[in-house]
Amino acid sequence: VVLLGTQVDLLQKKSGDYRVRTPDGYIAWVPSSSIEAMDKTMLANWRQAEKVIYTAEFGKSYSEPNEKSQRVSDLVYGDILQLKGQKGNFYEIAYPDGRLGYIKKSESLTLKNWFETRQPTAENIIASAKTMLGLPYLWGGTSVKGVDCSGFTKTSFFMNGFVIPRDASQQVLAGEKIDILDQEGHFDPEKALKNLKPADLLFFAAGKNSNPNARVTHVALYIGNGTFIHAAGLVRINSMLKDAANYDDFQTRTVVAARRYLGAHDSAIQKVVESNYYNNK
Q: Fewer CB within 10 Å: N-end or C-end of the chain?
């Protein structure tokens, strides 16, 4: 999933699909009907235009500056639109494909203001993650309509101004390594409680018990005191401590790594404001 208004690189067109590169470097195929291809002049105009970002969980845009007018489209957190003007309590906006509409000011911020107000603390990242509790698991999902495990962690960090790698197998390669395993490579609860900090990422490999080099297949966000929040069936909170009521035996047995993104100096973890895909420098 790529959010509305996100710039991507078009690498190839085949039949009715584009092969694209997203801001995190991920390569994927997207239906051409979901892409507004731009030449250099059109892209320059889009990049230089003032923009707004939708900040409510989900909602819609209107054909007129009132809530009783016809809907133009649905919107989710992180959608980016061109700012054309203001009318009362509404922003007048334009879509990448030229459609016009209005969104409520109370549900959006100018992109510049959003950049300036991001405070990527552990508390804020966890708070953003908790706003998605109960959200259904959706393979490939990276929006508040549905998320997969890595889309969930990606969205939690994006809400606080960071672009991070897309997949769990890519996310585990970034950030600072945190020691949570014993000498035999098994999860060590005491070591984990000592070394982990809130907003660290936990990584799991479903095939760990049969293959010590099994591929990372799941990721979660550590909350603290042995608990973590993740998208597994739905976004939920579990514990890695056996005595806890919400202990998750399978996930705990398959823990293979932990990484710390906050404070890490890694080009794979980029501030949105510093990304050429979001900010016209």
A: C
